[in-house]
């Protein structure tokens, strides 16, 4: 049985969406959405790495570092249709370029998951503790989690680590 589970990632997204759609517009609710969304991304990325054949102990060493997990995914390839009746293996780095919301310039999965490198609050600790959170809007991070989970589901059975 796999250590990391895409179903769990999807359940975290459902919980984050429930809070986001509630009447609670408090800072705590926003923090909850942001935290659950990042956790969903972490689990999905780790699941993809595990499905690719990367050993679980090596995945654990990446800890909660979303940018590092995304970078490691760049060492994978996924099989995709290129033309009718023709499949090819392409770098999994294509996940980085997935657009999260067209209304925002450069709102891609890669930009959002690498936000800490630009000064955003560090996941998970600075999202759980402290008085101020610096990050993208929680709803945007939630939509990034949705995109990561969708991409993971689409490619989970055809991914290899190089």
Brief summary of the model shown:
With about 160 residues, this protein is mainly alpha-helical. The chain has helices at about 5-20, 25-50, 55-60, 65-75, 110-115, 125-130, 140-155, and strands at about 75-85, 85-90, 160.
Supply the key terms:
mainly alpha, 3-stranded antiparallel β-sheet, single chain, 3 strands
Unreliable spans: none
Q: The biggest beta sheet, please?
A: 3 strands, antiparallel
What radius of gyration results from the CA coordinates? Answer: 16 Å
* Annotation, overall tally of beta strands: 3
Q: Label the structural class.
A: mainly alpha
CA distance, first residue to last residue: 22 Å
Shape, per Cα inertia axes: globular
Provide the spatial order of strands within the biggest beta sheet: 2-1-3
Summed up, the domain count is 1
- Summarize the amount of helix as a percent range: 40-55%
Mean pLDDT score, rounded?
Answer: 95
Q: What percent of residues are in strands?
A: 5-15%
Q: Give the SSE order as H and E letters.
A: HHHHEEHHHE
Helical element count?
7
Describe the structure.
With 162 residues, the protein is mainly α. It has one domain. The chain contains 7 helices and 3 strands. A 3-stranded antiparallel sheet has the order 2-1-3. Helix 1 runs antiparallel to helix 2, helix 2 packs parallel to helix 4 and helix 2 packs parallel to helix 7. The radius of gyration is 16 Å and the shape is globular.
Summarize the topology.
Layout: H1 6-20, H2 27-51, H3 56-61, H4 66-73, E1 76-83, E2 86-91, H5 109-113, H6 125-128, H7 138-155, E3 159-161
Antiparallel strand pairs: 1-2, 1-3
Helix pairs in contact: 1-2, 1-7, 2-4, 2-7
């Amino acid at each position: 049985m796999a250590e990391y589970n895409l179903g769990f990632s999807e359940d975290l997204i459902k919980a984050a969406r429930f809070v986001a759609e509630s009447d609670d517009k408090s800072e705590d609710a926003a923090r909850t959405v942001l935290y659950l969304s990042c956790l969903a991304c972490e689990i999905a990325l780790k699941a993809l790495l595990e499905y690719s054949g990367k050993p679980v102990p090596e995945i654990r060493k990446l800890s909660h570092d979303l940018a590092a997990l995304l970078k490691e995914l760049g060492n994978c390839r996924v099989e995709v249709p290129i033309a009718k009746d023709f499949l090819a293996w392409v770098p999994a780095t294509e996940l980085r370029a997935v657009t999260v919301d067209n209304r925002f310039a450069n709102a891609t999965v890669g930009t959002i998951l690498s936000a800490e490198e630009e000064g955003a609050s560090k996941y998970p600790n600075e999202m759980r503790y402290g008085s101020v959170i610096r990050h993208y809007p929680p709803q945007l991070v939630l939509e990034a989690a949705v995109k990561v989970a969708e991409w993971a589901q689409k490619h989970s059975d055809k991914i290899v680590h190089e």
